[in-house]
Amino acid sequence: MKNTSKHQGLRNQLAKLLEEKGITDKNVLEAIKIIPRHLFLNSSFEDFAYQDKAFPIAADQTISQPYTVAFQSQLLEVKKDDTILEIGTGSGYQTAVLCIMGAKVYTIERQNELFKKTSLLLPKLGIRPKKVIFGDGYKGLPEFAPFDSIIVTAGAPFIPQPLMAQLKIGGRLVIPLGEEHQIMTMLIRKNETQFEKHEFGEFRFVPLLEDKN
Ligand code: SAH
Question: Is residue 96 in contact with ligand 1, taking CB distance under 6 Å?
């Protein structure tokens, strides 16, 4: 698992590109500069790892485009020691960004193959989320709730009610909503019953799927 100065140069360029595309959160850009994205991809994609593109990973899933990862991370306004729930671990790249930003991350994946692969990869890279869980993200993680924020990294047909219930007052839920394409949506919890909704334009994700069992 090599991480060379050539890779570092490519990462610096990627961070610069994301800044030009409108990412302003310095901690997000710093994380992009640090995390070796090429090690989250199949080695046949290594040469392209620092392009701003999504790529296939195992189980017919994708690693999100860096801009999308940066955009969602920025919306979360991550503070050190925030507890964050991520739905859709996938390659673990988004997980790594949040961990490097100082968050305590709980992440759920429903594809066993990806769950196993990513659970092994992250510690090898020195990235230590609080928990990587094999399960159904539609249910959230009630035993560790409430969370400062929740990020969904697959396209959801609707907002799963358990996720709203597991958010702290003042907390943020960032979720791409829609079937064919998705509207990036953020809910901020105002009190027990009220949520403020913000929308941020179109993105494309693999679908958030219901439990297989
Ligand atoms: N954050 C990931 C994105 C992976 S794509 C990355 O940076 O690589 C979205 C992931 O969500 C896929 O791995 C998919 O298997 C997973 N997923 C889909 N439906 C899910 C569900 N109900 N619960 C948990 N994970 C789910």
Answer: no
Task: Judge whether 209 lies within some domain.
Answer: no
**How close is the Cα of 54 to the center of ligand 1, in Å?**
13
| Residue 113, strand partner residues | none
- Asked if 120 contacts 85 with a C-beta cutoff of 8 angstroms, the reply is no
How many domains, the chain? 1
Residue 34 has pLDDT above 60, yes or no: yes
Q: Examine residue 96 and state whether it is found in any structural domain, yes or no.
A: yes
Q: What per-residue confidence (pLDDT) applies to 103?
A: 98
pLDDT in tens, 127-178: 999 999 999 999 999 999 999 999 999 999 999 999 999 999 999 999 999 9
pLDDT band (50, 70, 90) for residue 212: low
Closest C-alpha residue for ligand 1 atom 14: 88
The answer as to whether 212 is a domain residue is no
Assess whether pLDDT exceeds 60 at residue 213.
Answer: no
- Does the residue 208 lie in any domain? no
> CATH number, domain at 191?
3.40.50.150
Question: Is the CB of 133 within 6 Å of ligand 1?
Answer: no
Query: Ligand 1 within 6 A of 94 CB?
Result: yes
The secondary structure of 149-197 as a DSSP string is EEEE-SBBSS--HHHHHTEEEEEEEEEEE-SSSEEEEEEEE-SSS-EEE
Write out the residue range of the structural domain in which residue 156 sits: 5-203
Residues labelled catalytic? 64
